[in-house]
């Protein structure tokens, strides 16, 4: 094996005649990757590369994106840490914008990172490969550079898998992303074994490696654990699943490694999960105590950091501290101008914050800014503006100019529809259907903005503040009273079903579960009367399950949630509901299906025996066979 004579110099491994890399995709074979060459005439040590990444991350989270890139880019074609850092910056921009151009740039940089890190990975001889069958690999033979190259390779593969998922919504893209995750998994499994079976002589290098392994293992498990059973069925086919409890545990351990460069990334993932993912994809609550502790610490270090100011706003919002949330979101917005896509995130949150207060005009102003400045979905931005105008119209607060704008927006909503790989986005299909309904009902939609607050799972948050939920409840009651005089209208049943569903949600938050149950049951029996809003039936059935879950009536909850999952298909926003059902069922079945295994030393392992990720339990696999694949 030809290795650099200087153990601290990042030099690619040599080309032995019988050498090959484990768990490599064919497209990333050493023979077809970037030509192997010394990083620079002066060399780049591992310690220096890590220090560069530390400085770049500090700059990035201090709103200095250009300066961070200036550190990464000069070495990004020769140093695997710089290549990875450069691709992470591009990845974050792609995820924020979801622009195909940005995704393409990020993919190119991630592929470059994979190729460069692969140059430095240890190449296993045929003799060593056969020896693995008889005994465990001796990771003490690996240099520090080879160990970290394996980790950077795994991290790059994970970025590539996520970007592949976002390229389009086709099943083929999903399968390709899943297969890339499997390659990533193999490399993370190797890193996990290195961490646990190597005799570390330098804690400085170990702490950076360990935090990276825990970040990857935690993110991997958490990401897969969020997927509904119909998606897990496909992932089971390619051989893995994830555990929420293991994921959170590993991320927490990674964050506890205070001197690690990846600690801040563990913080971002934990905050994203506890403050955003939980409230969008489930009916549960995030760990706000942990989120607050992370925010207090990070805001002391980065008081003007756009990311942590934003998460502080989100922390206040999910507690229905709306005015405080608005203050923090505005601070985040005004803290920087080098990353305009982050302004759009703030506008999106400010839009919902003002709508929670029923300040439709202020909410509409942010929706209008998003429509003008963001390219994510003009279709949704146009409809949201129109929905807020509908609320003012119902209150008699609409000027003639605003009414003309309402008509124009609703008319134009379908023209903004995007098609990605020949498919429309589910949320866009939903609002297009609503805009068509607006004209079919004589230029009106009842409770249009409250419906959006419900489907974006924000009505549940409003329920934490009595004054806010009372205001919603009074508006809904007034609408139901108005409907008494509209029983001959074609869409009377659709309007009534929506109002009753929203009323039930308010009553649950207001501490009246029996009345809430009555509302949900009434909606669940209206299927044959609905012309358009058929999604309300499975949603009302699921709400009964969520209600029983909150009352610890677990058997009833499971029955209703399984009914909502299995008995309906082809309705609007179906996948969104399946995510929430999956999260609730995972909690209900947690004692047997969610708890990760433990290693002999009492610490959580990646999942399963010998460092393998948790396999899908048999009973869950059987259950998934009753669902339809994507």
From TrEMBL:
SUPFAM superfamilies: HCP-like. It comes from the Eukaryota. Pfam families: Iml2-TPR_39. Residues 16-28 have a biased composition (Acidic residues). Gene3D superfamilies: Tetratricopeptide repeat domain. InterPro entries: IML2/TPR_39, TPR-like_helical_dom_sf. Transmembrane segments: none annotated. Residues 29-45 have a biased composition (Polar residues). Residues 1-45 are annotated as: Disordered. Coiled coil: none annotated. This is Tetratricopeptide repeat protein 39B. It comes from Daphnia galeata.
């Amino acid at each position: 094996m030809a290795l650099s004579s200087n153990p601290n110099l990042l030099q690619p491994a040599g080309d032995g005649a019988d050498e090959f890399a484990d768990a490599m995709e064919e497209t990333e074979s050493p023979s077809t990757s970037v030509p192997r060459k010394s990083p620079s005439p002066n060399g780049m040590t591992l310690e220096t590369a890590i220090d560069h990444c530390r400085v770049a991350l500090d700059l990035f989270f201090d709103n200095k994106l250009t300066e961070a890139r200036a550190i990464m880019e000069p070495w990004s074609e020769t140093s695997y840490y710089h290549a990875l850092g450069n691709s992470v910056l591009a990845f974050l921009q792609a995820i924020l914008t979801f622009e195909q151009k940005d995704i393409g740039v990020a993919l190119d940089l991630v592929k470059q990172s994979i190729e460069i890190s692969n140059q430095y990975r240890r190449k296993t001889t045929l003799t060593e490969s056969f020896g693995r069958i008889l005994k465990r690999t001796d990771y003490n033979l690996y240099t520090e550079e080879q160990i970290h190259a394996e980790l950077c390779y795994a991290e790059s593969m994970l970025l590539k898998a996520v970007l592949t998922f976002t390229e389009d919504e086709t099943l083929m893209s999903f399968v390709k992303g899943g297969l890339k995750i499997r390659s990533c998994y193999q490399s993370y499994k190797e890193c996990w074994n290195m961490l646990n079976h190597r005799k570390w002589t330098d804690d400085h290098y170990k702490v950076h490696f360990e935090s990276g392994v825990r970040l990857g293992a935690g993110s991997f498990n958490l990401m897969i654990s969020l997927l509904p059973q119909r998606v897990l069925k496909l992932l089971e086919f390619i051989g893995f699943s994830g555990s929420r409890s293991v994921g959170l545990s590993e991320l927490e351990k990674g964050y506890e490694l205070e001197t690690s460069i990846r600690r801040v990334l563990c913080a971002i993932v934990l905050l994203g999960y506890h403050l955003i993912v939980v409230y969008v994809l489930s009916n549960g609550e995030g760990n706000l105590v942990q989120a607050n502790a992370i925010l207090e610490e990070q805001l002391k270090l980065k008081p003007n950091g756009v990311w942590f100011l934003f998460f502080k706003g989100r922390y206040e919002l999910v507690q229905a501290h709306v005015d405080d949330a608005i203050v923090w979101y505005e601070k985040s917005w005004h803290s920087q101008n080098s990353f305009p896509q982050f302004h759009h995130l703030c506008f999106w949150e400010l839009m919902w914050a003002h709508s929670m207060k029923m300040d439709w005009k202020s909410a509409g102003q942010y929706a209008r800014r998003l429509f003008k400045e963001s390219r994510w979905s003009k279709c949704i931005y146009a409809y949201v503006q129109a929905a807020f105008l509908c609320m003012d119209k119902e209150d008699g607060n609409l000027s003639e100019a605003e009414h003309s704008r309402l008509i124009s927006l609703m008319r134009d909503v379908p023209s903004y529809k995007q098609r990605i790989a020949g498919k429309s986005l589910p949320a866009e299909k939903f609002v297009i259907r609503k805009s068509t309904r607006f004209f079919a009902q004589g230029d009106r939609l009842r409770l249009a903005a409250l419906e959006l607050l419900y489907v974006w799972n924000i009505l549940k948050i409003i329920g934490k503040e009595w004054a806010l939920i009372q205001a919603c409840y009074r508006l809904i009651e007034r609408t139901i009273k108005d409907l008494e005089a509209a029983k001959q209208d074609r869409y009377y049943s659709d309007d009534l079903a929506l109002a009753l569903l929203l009323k039930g949600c308010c009553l649950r938050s207001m501490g009246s579960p029996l009345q809430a149950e009555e509302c949900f049951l009434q909606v669940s029996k209206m299927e044959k009367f609905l012309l358009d809003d058929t999604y309300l039936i499975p949603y009302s059935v699921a709400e009964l399950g969520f209600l029983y879950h909150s009352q610890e009536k677990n058997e009833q909850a499971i029955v209703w949630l399984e009914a909502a999952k299995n008995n309906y298909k082809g309705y609007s926003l179906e996948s969104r509901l399946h995510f929430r059902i999956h999260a609730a069922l995972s909690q209900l079945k947690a004692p047997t299906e969610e708890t990760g295994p433990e290693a002999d030393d009492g610490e959580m392992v990646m999942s399963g025996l010998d460092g393998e990720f948790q396999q899908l339990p048999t009973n869950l696999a059987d259950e998934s066979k009753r669902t339809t694949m994507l």
